[in-house]
Specification:
By secondary structure, the protein is of the alpha/beta class. The chain has two domains: 204 residues, 2-enoyl-CoA Hydratase, Chain A, domain 1, CATH 3.90.226.10; 47 residues, Lyase 2-enoyl-coa Hydratase, Chain  A, domain 2, CATH 1.10.12. The protein is 44% helix and 16% strand. It has a six-stranded mixed sheet, sandwiched between helices. The protein has a four-stranded mixed sheet with strand order 4-6-8-9. The protein is globular.
Amino acid sequence: MSDDVVRFERRQHVALITLNRPDARNAFNPEVLVKLEEAWTKVREEDTIRVAVITGTGTAFCAGADLGRLIPLFSGARQPEDQWDHRLMADPGLAGRAILRDGDVVKPVIAAVNGFAIAGGMELVMGCDIRVAAETAQFGMQEARWAVFPAGGSTVRLPYQIPYAKAVELLLTGDLIDAPQALALGFLNHVAAVDHVVPLAFEIAERIATNGPLAVRAIRASIREAIGVPEAQALKREMELALPVFASEDAREGPRAFMEKRPPVYKGR
């Protein structure tokens, strides 16, 4: 298996992305961000990929920014030293795309949280559509402790992904919550034993991948685009997304397969 800091594997219609800096608790350094953004580009652009699963190696999902390498680079305390530093600094939007703050990979992303998801690691989970976590996983936003701002989207996303008062408490105190607490708050879909986290995420991914890919992408887009939008505007956009799906070959194949009592064969067109 690759020793790359970000592993990318294809398993039929599912991509598995693995953060692989276990000695650094999979923290984001410039190389990780560059390669993670490249992985999301593959997910978005390769038609055979319908769902992505992201996880980490070792006992952590992701501990957030590498305080020794990344934050000093962003603050100007450290000058670019290698190709990863230069590539990151040459593209101001790259970090946001890498942690799913900005842009859109278009397809569903499932977080398989094998351990700690702290700061930017928790923000990466916020950008995922479905979340499965180990019983031992912990979550928290600790940037305020180190006098930095959690600019990966958490001040916008967390207050609507969990109750407002709890979101504010977590963001301002830096306290951690465990997986059962995160599940009770609605931040997670499932909690499982650590060795079942990735298999469960794949089980969900494969169920999604058997559905019509155009319908899945349009449904996901409608859900995301409706957040914070007036209902009339959201309903108009829903219909704009729905009509091309109804006109697709897949929309004819699905009902036909149902009537013929056989599995549908979707082509994404």
